[in-house]
Amino acid sequence: MNIRELLSLDSIFLPSNVATREEAIQQMAEGMHSAGAVTDTAVFVQAVTAREQQSSTGIGFGVAIPHGKSAGVKRAALAFSRFEQPLEWESLDDQPAAMAFMIGVPEANAGNEHLQILVALSRKLIHDEFRAELLNAGSKQEVIDILSRHIG
């Protein structure tokens, strides 16, 4: 897994000024579409929303990791948003999400690719220093550099 292959400048929102979880999911899906990873934004958003309805992807620490497997996704991809105002995300710790990573994986090869991405991110996101670097990143390229340095 190479972060530079998954994440594009088009799919990073720094800061994102959306007001709701639904708007955040829509914005990140549109960014993944602009990056060429998502072919049908509506179908992908529906998959991500359905997953959110099963249980929240707010993992705590001010972070959410919405994800979905969908026929609307052409290749595995990642989006990142740092919110101007933290969003209610029904997180495990009842704290709003200050940032979110969204994972998209094609339905056809929905094996464990998204789980590998999810595990790699989750392992890093529990560390205060890593989250602080992302919260203080000054540019989209800096976000990619931070993720590449920590995850690969």
TrEMBL record:
Locations listed in the record: Cytoplasm
Name of this chain's protein: PTS fructose transporter subunit IIA
Record domain PTS EIIA type-2: where: 5-150
Matching NCBIfam families: fruA (TIGR00848)
A Gene Ontology molecular function term of the record: protein-N(PI)-phosphohistidine-sugar phosphotransferase activity
GO cellular component, one term: membrane
Alphabetic keyword roster: Phosphoprotein, Phosphotransferase system, Sugar transport, Transferase, Transport
Entry keyword annotation includes Glycoprotein: no
Main location per the UniProt record: cytoplasm
Pfam name, any one: PTS_EIIA_2
BP-aspect Gene Ontology terms: phosphoenolpyruvate-dependent sugar phosphotransferase system
InterPro entries, per database record: PTrfase/Anion_transptr, PTS_EIIA_type-2_dom, PTS_IIA_fruc, PTS_SugarTrans_NitroReg
Domain of life where this protein originates: Bacteria
